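Quick illustration, no need to memorize.
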Amino acid sequence: MRAILATTVGLFAIGCGSSDRMPDGPTRCDGALPAFASVSDGALIARCGAIEVTARPLVDGMIELRYAEAGAPRRRSFAVLAPLPTDTAASFGSDAGAASVCTPALALRIDELCRVRATLANGTVVLDDAQPFAVGDRATLVRHARPDRVYGLGERTGGLDKRGRAWTFWNTDAYNPELGGWVPDQDPLYQAIPFEVRLAGGVAHGVFTDETRRMVIDLGAADPALDTIAADGARALTQYVIAGPRMADVVERYTRLTGRPALPPRWALGFHQSRWGYPDSTVVEAVAARFRSEQIPADAIWLDIQHQRGYRTFTFDEPAFSTAMIARLAATGFRTIAIADPGIKVDPGWDVYDGGLAGDHFLHRPDGSVYQGTAWPGASVFPDFSRPETRAWWGDHVRSLVDRGVAGIWLDVNEPTTFPEGGGGNTVPDDLPAYGDGEPTKLAVLHNAYGLLEAQATFEALAAAGQQPFVLSRAGYAGIQRYAAVWTGDTPSTWDGLAQTLPMLLGLGVSGVPIVGSDIGGYSGHATPELYARWLALGSLSAFSRAHVTADAPGQEPWMFTPEVTELARARLGDRYRLLPYLYSLADEAARTGAPLLRPLVWELPDDPAVENLGDEAMLGPSLLVAPIVTEGATGREVYLPAGRWTELHSGAIYDGPATIHAGAPLAALPVFARAGAIIPTTDGIDVYPAAPSTFTLVDDDGARTTLELAAEADGARLAITRERPATGPLVIRVHGVDGDVTAVDGATSFTHDRDARTIVATVADAPVIALRFHYDVAVGELRPAVAVTFEVRVPADTPMTQPIHVATSASSWTHAPLSWVAPGVARGTVVLPRGEWFDYKFTRGDWDTVEKLAGCAEAGNRYRFGAPGAQIDTVATWRDRCP
């Protein structure tokens, strides 16, 4: 770290009381409290005329800070699970006339105008009020802007760093009918999460503003020198200042406050297929069958509103969609996810409507009449999810879907949206009264928490039904992660939509929401084959991976584009499924710490200024750097590799950072690099890249944990494996980056050294404790030595074996290299090619007049392949000299 946090209160010391801006430095707590301040129940309280500021030090490096108009009542938080204990070790005092509170991680001072300055223990200022708290039509905080980066703030367009814009917190159906989704730079979107992770000098801290009213956080848009928070109609603002020093520490503390996700079922991390418009069970089951026949892995089929009877939530339109369909899908390994919208059709005689009316579960107008708005089924009523009895009523109907065999619930249009869509989003009126979990309120206050409370009701119902819950929610507030996964809503099928997706996913992850994804191919539809293939590559790395598209557009199943895209889908999703043990273990880490699966590079490498606003690369867990291609027509992209050693995942090509490399970008390309020290469990073994000591916890389907500890040594490497429960068979360990001679592997039943792949492959008899010691020459020669690629091609059966088959590659300036006949219609040969680089190639019979053609004599485009060890098997349909 470039800054080390002091942990001794005695180090605090800053200067004077109420100047507009004081030099940075630690805060003292060694004087008597000033007259305007007092300590009560473990909190510092300052009173300045009609304003009162309360600072309560909490355990685990946090301070709760409440600005309020005198007499403003405290209200319950929808985000905070339960109040954290007060830090009884905190000290209170004064600092140059200001009241102060000090803890080992944070200190805070309040001057006689009730302006607040908060510092980290090393004196770094994290909050610095420029003006006293003001209350009028809105509650307003104005602060001096700090020279830091700001991440998070939930679901946002734009780059990774949120500075320079004003952000509105108001859950909105952002659909634009002309674009078929949200527009570039749209604000706001569907999720209101007012949590900032800030970074300055490599040290992180967090600020969470727990306010569900419409609010704007201006990070230097109106005035670059000031940050402003303004919440409509509020008389108080509550914030939590959260210490670091790492981003992971900040998010771990924030999610201790607001909750962490439950470990999702393993199938939820597989690939999912959806669309609005599957007309009946025959089509749905045909889609599922096609996945199996194409050998493209998938785990779930989603039912949008078309499966409902007249868009009535909790219904199935029999016989077009039946319970038997769900059972048949389950028999082939597909879970069924059903949508549930909050708008309940006004339909006397329908049990859901009648029961909701009888139980008083719907929102009312101020005059006491039941509010009606327009939603998918027409005239609709909306549950008051802030009422426990209503959440239980909703849960009863969720369980009716579980009884049908539904495995998960999709919550949509729950901002809540009323129709018509578009124009910035219509919603239920602000003046509707709501129960407020016993604290009567209005929708102006409840709006941003509406989707959160609906997700809570749904999650709890699934859990009560004995399921490992899986819920997807479009809308949410801080804390949504404890109940639901999130997707980026109606992202248009455009290159801009794709380009904005990765930084949006990263921002949500930093905001404490780790299970996130997007509609692969874009929601608006009509994606080109190129756009879909690139989006699928990104989706194959996202925590939640689902293809979805609107009605009245072609389907976006993987085979709906070109044979090439179908093959790429098979490969990309095959790679995802191979990584499922790694992904599932990361999901377990998220459940324990709140850490996102897909995280910005700055999360792992905060000391590297080059990654502070790098939003088109990401880390998948601690071990894999991924750099998706998101530009139309790209033939390559620049990839920044931070300091340290990085190994291209498939070829074994090694790069030493910091460096910016050029990666070729044919349609099949997806640059992925393993970090030195990586431990990557897969479905067929464990891959390790020895370096400085590292650890990883592998979590099996049954919850059993395996601790993996890896370290490089002067003459090889060691790997210690400690299992809670032995597996049923041997383990395969692959040690990468081994160039020199291998002399022994202690603890293995057998091993081989693949010199071309530069890998030791060791087989180990499983046991509760395994100690492996790999003895080899650790020197690495050429970082990217050439690789021998074996080509095998099947040609038309009538091709004379007297004519040699050739392969011509771009890597050899299109020189025609002869292959050898190995059987009638089959030729094979080895060509030495650049490791870790893409190259084009074609087959001929020795010159371009005999180049390959597609069936029907159509022109064959260049084939391409990556320079990695292994065989390439292809088929030629016909030859140019046989075509008209």
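The two ends are 69 Å apart (CA to CA).
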